[in-house]
Design brief:
The structure holds 2 protein chains of 2 kinds.
Chain A: H1 25-30, E1 38-45, H2 54-65, E2 74-77, H3 85-93, E3 100-103, H4 105-108, H5 115-129, E4 151-157, E5 163-169
Parallel strand pairs in A: 2-3, 2-4
Antiparallel strand pairs in A: 1-5, 4-5
Chain B: E1 13-22, E2 25-26, H1 28-36, E3 43-44, E4 57-58, H2 71-90, E5 102-106, H3 113-122, H4 130-137, H5 143-148, H6 153-162, E6 169-171, H7 177-190, E7 196-203, H8 208-216, E8 246-254, H9 255-260, E9 267-276, H10 289-302, E10 311-313, H11 320-334, E11 343-344, H12 347-350, H13 357-371, E12 373-374, E13 397-398, E14 403-409, E15 414-421
Parallel strand pairs in B: 5-6, 5-7, 10-11, 10-14
Antiparallel strand pairs in B: 1-2, 1-8, 1-9, 3-4, 7-8, 9-15, 12-13, 14-15
Helix pairs in contact in B: 2-6, 7-13, 10-11
The chains are: A alpha/beta, B alpha/beta.
Chain lengths: ~170, ~425
Amino acid sequence: MVRLRRLAIGCALGSAGAFLVIESRAHAEARGAKPYARLTNVVADLAHRSQSGEVTATLQKLWSKLGKLEAKGTIITGATGAEPVTSEERAFLGEHPDFAVRATGTMFGHTVETQFPLGLALAALSISRGALFPPNDSTGLEIEMSTPPSQIVVIGAGHWRGEGMALVEAVK
Amino acid sequence: MTAPRDKFGRPIVVVTGMGVVTSLGAGKADNWKKLSAGESGIRTITRFPTEGLKTTMAGTVDFVPVEPFSSTDLSERLADIATEEAVAQSALGSKGDFPGPLFLAVAPVEVEWPQRLELGRATGETDIDYDAILRVSGGGQFTQYHRRFQFGSVADHLAGKFGTKGSPISLSTACASGGTAIQLGVEAIRRGEADAALCVATDGSVNPEALVRFSLLSALSTHNDPPQAAVRPFAKNRDGFVMAEGAGALVLESLEAATARGAKILGVLAGCGELADSFHRTRSSPDGKPIIGCVRNALSDAGICPEEIDYINAHGTGTPENDKMEYLGISTVFGERTGQIPVSSNKSMVGHTLSAAGAVEAVFSLLTLEHQRIPPTINYDVPDPAIPFDVVPNKARDARVTAVMSNSFGFGGQNASLILTREPV
């Protein structure tokens, strides 16, 4: 996995566009549209990043605001590879070793503004298809996931500023 | 006592602090004095050479020194000045600890010529290509420019300095940006997500490249001499807008929170409307429907009818197209009353502060309510018979004003209207 590897510091830029149509469930159902997934919660904050550990603490805080999370879940992260933020995020991910992590930067590069909606789109697609995409990581951080994901947490920590998190769930 | 709600059951949003800086000066007192005296802040540009340019004047803020100059650095300084005034007036929170989110309207950001030239010099070459630029950029010596020229950098600075909560929102909806920043604050409070919000809009865009770009659109006035007479909104001899700099800041609170802490209430943000115009990149839809819809959205959001508006703070840029379309939109909504409602343009004096205009003019609208005096449209010597507005020509007018509509109609297709009142409606 390029993005979360310890030695290769820095991001590789990527170009991408992501466009999500978000509507209320009632509105979608009334027009007969089939939802990919439910966007249950989106939270964001701004760590000042003046001391080490602030991003890890902010991610922990955002995680606690997402809602009820099942064990052995899934995380799709837009980790950029820039430091020190990627190390801080890795420390946070280390607290959830049973979660299957996927870093989109490995495949798409750092798509900057698009990174977070891209993660949401991949989460919604994975849930609607009943399968998470395979690991793409030589460090062992990304683990296999054989069961259909019912919840995916999307993480975006900017290479310089800004932290966001979202919970995407299967429509029940 | 039940919480004060509007007629739709939402929290009432009030203003408890405001700050402004324009080419007329820094602060509400100085701006209001000059605005109500009909003074112009437009002057000949001295910041950079203007030889060969068709337009050589602007509403620059020259009394805030920024060295080396960049529009983003000036935008940040102007935002600081306006925000300090607004937060101090509100007396909300404590120093560096504002208890609410930040919504910032800020111009699009890019690396500017002084910084590009510095980068070029650092290559040590005369024939500069991308390889050379990449070579000198990679060492980290220009990291500060990477940060400076991120769209979120001004908001990041303000969030740190004033201690706003959460992730600050930087936004650009072209010339409607200032109105949009206020709208986002209003909506956050109405949703119950915040008791207070800091809404700021800033623009320090007068640099050679921006001036040339607007000039290429044939959007700028070329009435260079005298510069004070350049902006002629609604007049027959109007020939374009004049770029200007400034910032406006508002502290918004729920009426409940403001009352609970005994804050002085400066006015009510009764309604916000918006509507995009997708007709053309720079031209308004000829039927005026997006403007009409925007104005109607604001009225219906406030829950009031057109008869209750007794002053319109116009977008009034002074471009032939805008002023004509603005008359079409307003007269369609206000019908026979159109000629009886005072409609004046602050831009006749301060110029078009672009991303900041919506917030600067919201502050002026609130000052109009406070002083019960309508600032004039200056340089109005040749009326345009096709635009029979009562433009409050050339001299301020004392009047009873209870509800103001402040319009921002960007020619990029973004429209926003605000309704401000003295008392809850």
